[in-house]
Structure prediction request, 183 residues.
Amino acid sequence: MSESSIKIENVVASTKLAEEFDLTVIESQFEGAEYNKQKFPGLVYRVSDPKAAFLVFTSGKVVCTGAKNVADVHTVIGNMAKKLNSIGIKTMENPQITVQNIVASADLHTILNLNAIAIGLGLENIEYEPEQFPGLVYRIDEPKVVVLIFSSGKLVVTGGKTPEDCESGVEVVRQQLDNMGLL
Prediction:
């Protein structure tokens, strides 16, 4: 599978760190935090090492986005909890972190004929309207991911819950294109 190994571009995960948060307190204590409830109901806070962004809500829920791997998600959420504790906001110990979505890219290193692929894959699982979007949207049932296929041979996989889901999605596409003689 080395020809089509994936590169994780973004991991989105969520957790609950407390029963509730006072976002104005967090905004005043966290340098660079942005909170304007007229525009958005959550506080936005970005960190740089590892790089990620948080959406923090009054419900105590936190969404982490922008991490490049699942380990970084755990690291930055742990760091966020420590930082909240350091300003006197108690957080839950060992919060359950749920990966909501992984976006990955891959390259098949070949030019693809999307019209032939659309016909070969059948219309029930694909969307291809080149006048509106240059890629073919392929919905795979197992693993449950969506793969955007571009004529350049580049793929974008979204909807995976694990890196393995994304790898498997790429492998499904590669095998199906190979079976159709389109690789």
Notes: The mean pLDDT is 94. The domain at 18-94 is CATH 3.30.310.10 (TATA-Binding Protein). The chain has two domains: 18-94, 101-179. Helices lie at 23-29, 70-86, 114-121, 163-179.
